[in-house]
Amino acid sequence: MIDTLNDIETVALAELAGTADASTLDAWKATYLGNKGKLKAAMAGLKDVAKEDKPAVGKRLNEVKNSLEEALKARRAALGGSATGDGVGTAGPKLDLTEPGLIETHALGRRHIIMRVREELVEVFARMGFEVAQGAELEDDEHNFIKLNIPPEHPAREPIDNFYVDDPDLVDTPRMLRSQTSTVQIRVLEKLLAEGGTPPVKVVSPGRVYRPDTVDATHSFMFHQIEGLYVDRGVTMADLKTTLFQFARAYFGADAEIRLRPSFFPFTEPSAEFDMKIQLRPDEPPKWVELGGCGMVDPAVFAACGLDPEAWTGFAFGFGIERIAMGRYSIPDIRMLYENDVRFLEQL
Ligand code: DAH
């Protein structure tokens, strides 16, 4: 009997050392200390032990029971549960190291569609040899109007049609938020001459422009244009049309349709309106939409910048980037581009 108890103790302690969690610990407890466990069974055998051996066997039985209970407490504590509690770690949340981590799903942002179209346009023109020129948004009369051959009495100069920063009646050179990127044509030519350079010049310049227009589906008080200027000897209207056609095919696809309509701009002669057949609504057929203006640089512009109009020729164009984006992505209302509704922006 004593041997049996010794064996139970030895095996039980060995098995206890191998327990790893609350459930194996509970199973171990049931096997050795439970009501139907091995110690209980041994106790039941006590009645068959010879009377004179009983005290020794009983004592050993108690010792083994105490030893297993102490060992159980120690093991529970070692496994991180409460030594007196009923299960290991059952008090707190279970830690399952195989569970996939809590990946916080931050929605990935992206650049605004206008910025992306602007970049794409610059890229298309870069492939045709155009470099990027920078201009300022805060401009003066001289660059927004005068040197672009827009005389003082021209209706485009009405204070009500422009965002003047200084009162035009009170200062000699009022400053304004530029109303067109054509200002950059002047800036580029002036800089070229100031640095002692000569054409050819081949630049595009994208950027914001401002006009106090009433906001509706096709107008905004701030929008973007991309200006183009090519100056060299012997540039013709055919070069302009070829460039625009190539641009349209590169950006809108091989079956892009364009047309030039005669028009008037003070800084080009002849001037044209540039239209493309585009689809603004998925449920409507494509229609002709004006993307901007273009033409042959007026000799008066060359002269104003100090270039000999007899020697140099050039073409220029200025397109609305919003219009192009709306045509390319079938956006029916310009306001959608500024409302920053994520549900809309996510589709682009
Ligand atoms: N600046 C003109 C506008 O905003 C557009 C334009 C027309 C630009 C003809 C040009 C051009 O460069 O040649 O309405």
Summarize the structure in words.
The protein is an alpha+beta fold and 348 residues long. It has two domains: 2-78, no CATH class; 113-345, Bira Bifunctional Protein, Domain 2 (BirA Bifunctional Protein, domain 2, 2-Layer Sandwich). It has helices at 2-17, 22-32, 38-44, 54-78, 113-127, 141-144, 183-194, 237-252, 299-305, 321-329, 342-345; strands at residues 131-132, 138-140, 163-164, 175-177, 201-210, 222-232, 258-265, 268-278, 287-297, 313-320. Strands 1-5-6-10-9-8-7 form a seven-stranded mixed sheet, with helices on both faces. Strands 2-4-3 form a three-stranded antiparallel sheet. β7 and β8 (268-278) form a beta hairpin. α2 packs antiparallel against α4. Residues 82-89 have low confidence and may be disordered. The structure holds 3,4-dihydroxyphenylalanine (DAH).
Write the SSE topology:
Layout: H1 2-17, H2 22-32, H3 38-44, H4 54-78, H5 113-127, E1 131-132, E2 138-140, H6 141-144, E3 163-164, E4 175-177, H7 183-194, E5 201-210, E6 222-232, H8 237-252, E7 258-265, E8 268-278, E9 287-297, H9 299-305, E10 313-320, H10 321-329, H11 342-345
Parallel strand pairs: 1-5
Antiparallel strand pairs: 2-4, 3-4, 5-6, 6-10, 7-8, 8-9, 9-10
Helix pairs in contact: 1-4, 2-4, 5-10
The chain binds 3,4-dihydroxyphenylalanine.
